[in-house]
Design the sequence.
């Protein structure tokens, strides 16, 4: 099935490619992004929730 879809798309002039680039919001500072990329393999928490937690802790402290 996958080959057939690729073939049809190729005939129409399209090519499927994987998009491995991770898109982050502009308001995340580079320090937070590097921290998140370090923690990401060990958590199921989304980047939005991690950022909210960090901001909440900064607010309390």
Sequence:
């Amino acid at each position: 099935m996958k080959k057939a879809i690729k073939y049809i798309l190729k005939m129409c002039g399209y090519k499927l490619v994987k998009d491995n680039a991770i898109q982050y919001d502009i308001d995340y500072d580079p320090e937070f992004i590097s921290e998140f990329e370090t923690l990401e393999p060990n958590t199921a928490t989304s980047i939005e929730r991690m950022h909210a937690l960090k901001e909440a802790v900064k607010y309390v402290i």
